Amino acid sequence: MSAPHTDVEQVEAANTAFYEALEQGDFEGVSSFWLAPSDLGVDETYHDPADAGVVSCVHPGWPVLTGRGEVLRSYALIMANTDYIQFFLTDVHVSVTGDTALVNCTENILSGGPAPEAGGELGPLVGQLVVATNVFRRTPDGWKLWSHHASPVLAENGENEDDEEEDTPS
Predict the structure, then answer these.
(1) Using only C-alpha atoms, what is the Rg of the chain?
(2) 100 vs 156: CA distance, rounded Å
């Protein structure tokens, strides 16, 4: 077993590489970061892959997706419908216990859709703030995603703060 600080560094590197593959639209790269039955030593010929080490994913506003096929299909759809995406990860915290690792982070996402007209420039860029939890499992080939859960962060507006200050006695 590797030293705890090495595990944390390896998990953080795997987490970063996953987001980089997503930014590049590299479906094979994204797929390689998700846990597969073979990573758990399960022979898919004799076991239903959906029953072995079930992976799960929740994208903001989506229902829970379970099973490697369903999760990877969701990433294929996202990549097919997003011409540009960039993740600026902040507040990254990694903790490792045995062969399981938990990464909590804030995804500061900048994305752009297809051009409004054929041959036109990229559609308008949109920013989004999302908090994510990524669960990794140690495999013989490195750390693999077991679960991803992302939730949008509601933007605060300054109006409520001013109103509260006025109502608060001095």
Answers:
(1) 19
(2) 34
74-100 pLDDT per residue, tens: 999 999 988 899 999 999 999 999 999
d(CA 33, CA 43) in angstroms, rounded, equals: 19
Three-state secondary structure of 65-123: EECHHHHHHHHHHHHHCCCEEEEEEEEEEEEEECCEEEEEEEEEEEEECCCCCCCCCCC
Residue 11: name the closest of 105, 107, 147, 136 by CA: 136
Q: What are phi and psi of 66, to 5 degrees?
A: -125, 150
CA distance linking residue 113 with residue 127, whole number of Å: 12
Q: What residue type is assigned to position 65 of the chain? A: L
Give the pLDDT band of residue 109 (cuts 50, 70, 90).
Answer: very high
Which tokens sit at 149?
């859960």
Residues 6+ apart with CB under 8 A from 127: 108, 109, 110
Q: How far is CA 46 from CA 37, 41, 142, in A?
A: 11, 12, 24
Q: Is the pTM of this model over 0.90?
A: no
Report d(CA 76, CA 71) in Å as an integer.
Answer: 9
